[in-house]
């Protein structure tokens, strides 16, 4: 019969020496024996229960495996965990200890905690845990990794806080072995309680998803649980701005998964390895680095265009190149990413992903659309980052439908052909056409493409003294932005009960309107802007377009920080736009010093806060540099006593900003 403490919690049986004595051992002391009262036994049993629930450190696990090696390698595959105080209960009898280890629950699906005793009609398993009637009678469905049916255990109504006590008398604690994901990525918007619950699933000996079986023999450097969790994290990751090109329900299907080449599968894991905060990725200081390096090597080794001289490549190879490009451009070696992006653009053109292929089913067609449009918007983003001309033209996209709405793609319902949907159209969108990256951000990137082209027109020596032409182009871009702003408000007014996700996108879009007005004026280069600031402050157009929109962008940014404090929605794309917005404010503050208005001063503070949030979410060198120099620029009028050495600090700021140039021959962030 299972033990029960004073609160009615059902606990697993504790080993004893037969005389009512429970022995325990501190890991650094000798074994001692004490007489145990019923209350003490219940208390220690509760500690043992907690040791089953809380994960242990790698060091403690190794010590225990050495002590109980003959049991930890048994068929159950159960690791012997300790609590954070390294308290390890043992029995005086080796046989009793072996029995205790074998009787411990083999998965969290079997660990159930009750506040009140269950009804008398309830059955129990060998470990004293609650089972449904189907489990008690031997009926059941599929078997979970722990050896028990996932349907044998009552599904929880809510999670339980280990530190604050139980939830509701009728609720229990359990976690199915199939819950997804088991370890939550801190770089996503998942509920915090799922990450901090402290539950540890059984160390699985096989991968959870059939799609991974084809590469299992090459993943021996990481345990199956970590690999399975990484493939799940990919679909919840927002840090690297990858809107899933492949449908989750297809890839992770347990019966008929989407066929994938090895390079694509390894690249899924690579993106997740960069983004996740999975505990196993931090087992040692070098664990993450080693796993990332091995996955990178595997992706490159399996890319067909690199393996075969005449290798034509496939859609999977294009997506794998996209993943390599994203993780490289988000690192400190940004310039190195261009080889992967150039390969992706070339393969996409070769495969004609910009042309509708009626011979494919709708899901395959949608994958091709999403791949091409992601390359399209990333092309605009990289042109802004590295001061490059565009690689993909609008004319190449005129025969391709825009992607379906994000809410439809992340579901598992059957997709309608694009031709049957009256809301779908071909060509680049310039107004809001849905939610998410392709519905709300893609239109801004289409406008950004025209701003980039204008930027190179201004720098082109063949078009010198063409002020009227440039003025006309600027007016057309402003008209596009006005239409875009109107479409945002219309979309929101037509949306009933918008989710926090949609509301967050709305605040970002309003901020982008101001940012793109600033970019359309062409003042990207910080050194040129600093030199021209005295004359520009007397220019009415500059004051109306740049200064007013810089302050407006900061006000919108303040609202963005309210709904998304860590700027986790699209930090991969947002950082460069935030930087170029702040450059205008920095140059104004640098020139005016104590004469800076309160509005500009407040705007500078907001931009500093935003950069600090970006540094936490996606830490890059240029953000750290700019945050430091902007903070230094506003110190002189916030703290007048620090105003000495103004020219010296200004010279240092100029030296740092000179690393990032958007002038002819400049390379932007690629230093």
UniProtKB/TrEMBL annotation:
Gene Ontology terms for molecular function: DNA binding; zinc ion binding
- Xylanolytic transcriptional activator regulatory domain ranges (all copies): 337-407
Q: Which GO terms describe its biological process?
A: DNA-templated transcription
Q: Which InterPro entries match?
A: XlnR/Xlr1, XnlR_reg_dom
Q: In the UniProt record, does the keyword Glycosyltransferase occur?
A: no
Bias (Polar residues) occurs at 1-17
In this entry, which stretches build a coiled coil? 463-494
Q: Which PANTHER family match?
A: XYLANOLYTIC TRANSCRIPTIONAL ACTIVATOR XLNR-RELATED
Q: Would you tell me the protein name for this molecule?
A: Xylanolytic transcriptional activator regulatory domain-containing protein
Can you name the source organism?
A: Trichomonascus ciferrii
